[in-house]
Write a structure and sequence with these properties.
Layout lengths: L3 E5 L12 H13 L4 E4 L11 H15 L4 E5 L5 H13 L4 E5 L8 H14 L4 E5 L1 H4 L5 H8 L4 E6 L4 H10 L5 E4 L2 H9 L4 E4 L6 H12 L3 H17 L7 H9 L16 H13 L4
Parallel strand pairs: 1-2, 1-8, 2-3, 3-4, 4-5, 5-6, 6-7, 7-8
Helix pairs in contact: 1-2, 3-4, 4-6, 8-9, 8-10, 9-10, 10-12, 11-12
Protein backbone atom coordinates (compact mmCIF):
# COMPACT_ATOMS: atom_id res chain seq x y z
CA UNK A 1 0.00 0.00 0.00
CA UNK A 2 1.30 3.46 -0.94
CA UNK A 3 1.17 5.78 2.08
CA UNK A 4 2.19 9.30 3.02
CA UNK A 5 2.27 12.56 1.07
CA UNK A 6 1.27 12.20 -2.57
CA UNK A 7 1.38 15.46 -4.50
CA UNK A 8 -1.42 16.46 -6.87
CA UNK A 9 1.17 18.00 -9.19
CA UNK A 10 0.50 21.19 -11.14
CA UNK A 11 1.40 21.18 -14.82
CA UNK A 12 3.85 24.06 -15.40
CA UNK A 13 3.16 26.16 -18.47
CA UNK A 14 4.76 29.07 -20.25
CA UNK A 15 2.88 32.32 -20.74
CA UNK A 16 1.36 31.06 -23.99
CA UNK A 17 -0.03 27.96 -22.27
CA UNK A 18 2.47 25.44 -23.66
CA UNK A 19 3.62 22.76 -21.20
CA UNK A 20 7.05 23.66 -19.79
CA UNK A 21 8.81 20.30 -19.58
CA UNK A 22 12.04 21.75 -18.13
CA UNK A 23 10.07 23.20 -15.22
CA UNK A 24 8.20 19.92 -14.88
CA UNK A 25 11.48 18.06 -14.50
CA UNK A 26 12.61 20.53 -11.82
CA UNK A 27 9.35 19.99 -9.93
CA UNK A 28 9.78 16.21 -9.98
CA UNK A 29 13.29 16.57 -8.55
CA UNK A 30 11.99 19.02 -5.94
CA UNK A 31 9.51 16.41 -4.72
CA UNK A 32 11.93 13.51 -4.71
CA UNK A 33 14.48 15.56 -2.76
CA UNK A 34 11.85 16.52 -0.19
CA UNK A 35 10.28 13.16 0.61
CA UNK A 36 7.11 13.07 -1.49
CA UNK A 37 5.98 9.44 -1.66
CA UNK A 38 4.10 9.60 -4.95
CA UNK A 39 3.37 12.02 -7.78
CA UNK A 40 -0.07 12.38 -9.35
CA UNK A 41 0.56 13.50 -12.92
CA UNK A 42 -2.24 15.31 -14.77
CA UNK A 43 -4.86 14.92 -12.12
CA UNK A 44 -7.42 17.68 -11.90
CA UNK A 45 -4.87 19.98 -10.21
CA UNK A 46 -2.70 19.33 -13.27
CA UNK A 47 -5.37 20.99 -15.46
CA UNK A 48 -6.40 17.70 -17.05
CA UNK A 49 -9.61 19.30 -18.29
CA UNK A 50 -7.73 21.60 -20.68
CA UNK A 51 -4.92 19.31 -21.85
CA UNK A 52 -5.50 17.32 -25.00
CA UNK A 53 -5.23 13.54 -24.76
CA UNK A 54 -1.84 13.68 -26.49
CA UNK A 55 -0.55 16.35 -24.09
CA UNK A 56 -1.94 14.40 -21.17
CA UNK A 57 0.02 11.28 -22.10
CA UNK A 58 3.15 13.30 -22.92
CA UNK A 59 3.12 14.77 -19.40
CA UNK A 60 2.55 11.37 -17.77
CA UNK A 61 5.40 9.88 -19.80
CA UNK A 62 7.67 12.79 -18.91
CA UNK A 63 6.98 12.45 -15.18
CA UNK A 64 7.67 8.70 -15.41
CA UNK A 65 10.95 9.45 -17.17
CA UNK A 66 12.01 12.13 -14.69
CA UNK A 67 11.03 10.06 -11.65
CA UNK A 68 13.03 7.11 -13.01
CA UNK A 69 11.50 4.66 -10.55
CA UNK A 70 12.43 6.68 -7.46
CA UNK A 71 8.80 7.39 -6.54
CA UNK A 72 5.49 5.99 -7.72
CA UNK A 73 3.72 7.86 -10.52
CA UNK A 74 -0.07 7.92 -10.39
CA UNK A 75 -1.62 9.05 -13.67
CA UNK A 76 -4.82 11.05 -13.67
CA UNK A 77 -7.17 9.02 -15.84
CA UNK A 78 -10.66 10.26 -15.24
CA UNK A 79 -13.39 11.74 -17.36
CA UNK A 80 -17.11 12.10 -17.74
CA UNK A 81 -17.05 9.68 -20.69
CA UNK A 82 -16.27 6.14 -19.59
CA UNK A 83 -14.62 5.24 -22.91
CA UNK A 84 -12.32 8.26 -22.68
CA UNK A 85 -11.31 7.39 -19.11
CA UNK A 86 -10.53 3.82 -20.21
CA UNK A 87 -8.37 5.12 -23.08
CA UNK A 88 -6.46 7.47 -20.77
CA UNK A 89 -5.84 4.62 -18.37
CA UNK A 90 -4.61 2.27 -21.05
CA UNK A 91 -2.33 4.87 -22.61
CA UNK A 92 -1.01 5.91 -19.19
CA UNK A 93 -0.07 2.28 -18.57
CA UNK A 94 1.80 2.24 -21.88
CA UNK A 95 3.58 5.45 -20.77
CA UNK A 96 4.89 3.67 -17.68
CA UNK A 97 2.63 4.90 -14.88
CA UNK A 98 2.36 2.77 -11.75
CA UNK A 99 -1.26 3.49 -10.81
CA UNK A 100 -4.32 5.42 -11.97
CA UNK A 101 -6.44 8.06 -10.24
CA UNK A 102 -9.94 8.28 -11.68
CA UNK A 103 -12.33 11.06 -10.71
CA UNK A 104 -16.12 10.81 -10.38
CA UNK A 105 -17.64 11.92 -13.71
CA UNK A 106 -18.50 15.60 -13.74
CA UNK A 107 -21.64 17.27 -15.15
CA UNK A 108 -23.43 14.02 -16.10
CA UNK A 109 -24.70 13.49 -12.51
CA UNK A 110 -24.73 9.67 -12.74
CA UNK A 111 -26.67 7.56 -10.26
CA UNK A 112 -24.84 5.40 -7.74
CA UNK A 113 -25.33 2.44 -10.07
CA UNK A 114 -23.92 4.52 -12.91
CA UNK A 115 -20.85 5.35 -10.80
CA UNK A 116 -20.38 1.69 -9.96
CA UNK A 117 -20.61 0.59 -13.60
CA UNK A 118 -18.32 3.45 -14.75
CA UNK A 119 -15.51 2.57 -12.35
CA UNK A 120 -15.98 -1.17 -12.78
CA UNK A 121 -15.52 -0.75 -16.54
CA UNK A 122 -12.34 1.30 -15.99
CA UNK A 123 -10.92 -1.25 -13.54
CA UNK A 124 -11.84 -4.19 -15.76
CA UNK A 125 -9.97 -2.60 -18.68
CA UNK A 126 -6.93 -1.42 -16.74
CA UNK A 127 -3.58 -3.13 -16.42
CA UNK A 128 -2.84 -0.84 -13.45
CA UNK A 129 -4.35 -0.52 -9.97
CA UNK A 130 -7.02 2.18 -9.75
CA UNK A 131 -7.62 4.76 -7.02
CA UNK A 132 -11.10 6.27 -7.00
CA UNK A 133 -11.52 10.04 -6.50
CA UNK A 134 -14.63 11.57 -4.95
CA UNK A 135 -14.77 15.38 -5.05
CA UNK A 136 -18.44 16.43 -5.10
CA UNK A 137 -17.54 20.10 -4.74
CA UNK A 138 -16.19 19.98 -8.30
CA UNK A 139 -18.17 17.15 -9.91
CA UNK A 140 -21.61 17.64 -8.25
CA UNK A 141 -22.11 13.86 -8.14
CA UNK A 142 -21.16 12.37 -4.76
CA UNK A 143 -20.09 8.74 -4.58
CA UNK A 144 -21.62 7.23 -1.45
CA UNK A 145 -19.63 5.14 0.99
CA UNK A 146 -21.75 2.12 0.07
CA UNK A 147 -20.78 2.52 -3.61
CA UNK A 148 -17.10 3.00 -2.73
CA UNK A 149 -17.17 -0.13 -0.57
CA UNK A 150 -18.90 -2.09 -3.30
CA UNK A 151 -16.12 -1.02 -5.69
CA UNK A 152 -13.48 -1.90 -3.08
CA UNK A 153 -14.39 -5.54 -3.68
CA UNK A 154 -12.94 -5.26 -7.21
CA UNK A 155 -9.40 -6.69 -7.20
CA UNK A 156 -8.07 -3.84 -9.33
CA UNK A 157 -9.52 -0.99 -7.24
CA UNK A 158 -7.07 -0.34 -4.42
CA UNK A 159 -8.03 2.94 -2.79
CA UNK A 160 -10.09 6.11 -2.55
CA UNK A 161 -9.19 9.78 -2.50
CA UNK A 162 -11.94 11.50 -0.53
CA UNK A 163 -12.10 15.28 -0.86
CA UNK A 164 -15.30 15.84 1.09
CA UNK A 165 -13.47 16.85 4.28
CA UNK A 166 -16.02 14.76 6.19
CA UNK A 167 -14.13 12.85 8.90
CA UNK A 168 -17.26 10.90 9.88
CA UNK A 169 -17.34 9.44 6.37
CA UNK A 170 -13.74 8.30 6.74
CA UNK A 171 -14.45 6.66 10.07
CA UNK A 172 -17.30 4.72 8.47
CA UNK A 173 -15.12 3.73 5.51
CA UNK A 174 -12.21 2.66 7.72
CA UNK A 175 -14.55 0.52 9.81
CA UNK A 176 -16.08 -1.26 6.82
CA UNK A 177 -13.38 -1.27 4.12
CA UNK A 178 -10.91 -4.08 3.55
CA UNK A 179 -7.72 -3.57 5.53
CA UNK A 180 -5.67 -3.25 2.34
CA UNK A 181 -7.96 -0.61 0.78
CA UNK A 182 -6.08 2.71 0.96
CA UNK A 183 -7.88 5.86 2.09
CA UNK A 184 -6.38 9.20 1.12
CA UNK A 185 -7.56 12.65 2.05
CA UNK A 186 -8.11 15.00 -0.86
CA UNK A 187 -8.74 17.94 1.46
CA UNK A 188 -5.57 19.44 2.94
CA UNK A 189 -7.37 21.34 5.69
CA UNK A 190 -8.74 18.13 7.23
CA UNK A 191 -5.90 15.86 6.13
CA UNK A 192 -4.20 15.65 9.52
CA UNK A 193 -7.42 14.63 11.26
CA UNK A 194 -8.15 12.20 8.42
CA UNK A 195 -4.84 10.41 8.99
CA UNK A 196 -5.08 10.44 12.78
CA UNK A 197 -8.44 8.70 12.35
CA UNK A 198 -7.01 5.95 10.17
CA UNK A 199 -6.33 7.47 6.76
CA UNK A 200 -3.27 6.31 4.83
CA UNK A 201 -2.11 9.63 3.44
CA UNK A 202 -3.00 12.79 1.57
CA UNK A 203 -3.17 13.52 -2.15
CA UNK A 204 -2.22 17.09 -1.59
CA UNK A 205 -2.26 20.51 -3.23
CA UNK A 206 -0.28 21.99 -0.33
CA UNK A 207 2.51 19.50 -1.08
CA UNK A 208 3.17 21.39 -4.32
CA UNK A 209 4.45 24.27 -2.21
CA UNK A 210 5.73 22.58 0.96
CA UNK A 211 6.64 18.98 0.10
CA UNK A 212 9.04 18.43 3.01
CA UNK A 213 6.56 19.70 5.58
CA UNK A 214 3.71 17.63 4.12
CA UNK A 215 5.89 14.53 4.09
CA UNK A 216 6.79 15.08 7.75
CA UNK A 217 3.16 15.82 8.65
CA UNK A 218 1.98 12.58 7.07
CA UNK A 219 4.69 10.53 8.77
CA UNK A 220 3.76 11.99 12.16
CA UNK A 221 -0.01 11.63 11.73
CA UNK A 222 0.09 8.11 10.32
CA UNK A 223 2.47 7.19 13.14
CA UNK A 224 0.01 8.50 15.73
CA UNK A 225 2.31 11.34 16.84
CA UNK A 226 -0.50 13.85 17.22
CA UNK A 227 1.46 16.61 18.94
CA UNK A 228 4.17 16.56 16.27
CA UNK A 229 1.56 16.47 13.51
CA UNK A 230 -0.28 19.45 14.98
CA UNK A 231 2.92 21.50 15.23
CA UNK A 232 3.66 20.98 11.55
CA UNK A 233 0.06 21.48 10.50
CA UNK A 234 -0.18 24.80 12.37
CA UNK A 235 2.44 26.28 10.04
CA UNK A 236 0.64 24.94 6.99
CA UNK A 237 -2.86 26.09 7.87
CA UNK A 238 -2.51 29.28 5.86
CA UNK A 239 -1.58 27.31 2.75
CA UNK A 240 -4.39 24.80 3.31
CA UNK A 241 -6.81 27.74 3.23
CA UNK A 242 -5.30 30.27 0.84
CA UNK A 243 -4.41 27.79 -1.91
CA UNK A 244 -8.19 27.64 -2.40
CA UNK A 245 -8.90 31.36 -2.15
CA UNK A 246 -9.54 31.10 -5.90
CA UNK A 247 -10.21 27.89 -7.84
CA UNK A 248 -7.40 25.33 -7.71
CA UNK A 249 -4.74 25.40 -9.18
CA UNK A 250 -4.74 29.18 -9.65
CA UNK A 251 -3.23 30.02 -6.22
CA UNK A 252 -0.84 27.06 -6.25
CA UNK A 253 0.61 28.04 -9.61
CA UNK A 254 0.97 31.67 -8.49
CA UNK A 255 2.74 30.50 -5.32
CA UNK A 256 5.18 28.31 -7.24
CA UNK A 257 5.89 31.16 -9.64
CA UNK A 258 6.46 33.46 -6.65
CA UNK A 259 8.95 30.85 -5.38
CA UNK A 260 10.59 30.97 -8.85
CA UNK A 261 9.96 27.28 -9.49
CA UNK A 262 7.66 27.59 -12.52
CA UNK A 263 6.60 30.27 -15.00
CA UNK A 264 3.23 31.97 -14.61
CA UNK A 265 1.32 30.19 -17.37
CA UNK A 266 -2.20 28.83 -16.89
CA UNK A 267 -4.90 27.88 -19.39
CA UNK A 268 -8.27 29.46 -19.97
CA UNK A 269 -10.91 29.33 -18.65
CA UNK A 270 -8.68 29.65 -15.57
CA UNK A 271 -6.98 33.02 -15.20
CA UNK A 272 -3.99 34.20 -13.13
CA UNK A 273 -4.48 34.91 -9.43
CA UNK A 274 -6.17 38.24 -8.83
CA UNK A 275 -4.06 41.00 -7.36
CA UNK A 276 -6.47 41.22 -4.43
CA UNK A 277 -5.63 37.63 -3.39
CA UNK A 278 -1.86 37.86 -3.78
CA UNK A 279 -1.15 39.24 -0.31
CA UNK A 280 -3.05 36.42 1.43
CA UNK A 281 -1.21 33.71 -0.52
CA UNK A 282 2.15 35.37 0.08
CA UNK A 283 1.42 35.58 3.82
CA UNK A 284 0.65 31.85 3.82
CA UNK A 285 3.96 31.15 2.08
CA UNK A 286 5.80 33.06 4.77
CA UNK A 287 3.87 31.33 7.58
CA UNK A 288 4.92 27.99 6.11
CA UNK A 289 8.51 29.24 5.89
CA UNK A 290 8.87 28.46 2.22
CA UNK A 291 9.44 32.06 1.17
Amino acid sequence: MLTGSLVALVTPMSQDGAVDFAALQRLVEFHIENGTAGIVAVGTTGESATLSVEEHIEVVAAVVKYAAGRVKVIAGAGGNATAEAIELGQRSAEAGADMLLSVVPYYNKPTQEGLYQHFKAIADASALPVILYNVPGRTVADMSNDTALRLAEHPNIVGLKDATGDIARLCDLRLRAPADFALYSGDDASGMAFMLCGGNGVISVTANIAPRQMSELCAAAIGGKAERARAINDKLQGLHKQLFVEPNPIPAKWALARMQRIPEGIRLPLTPLSQAAEAAVEAALKQAEVL
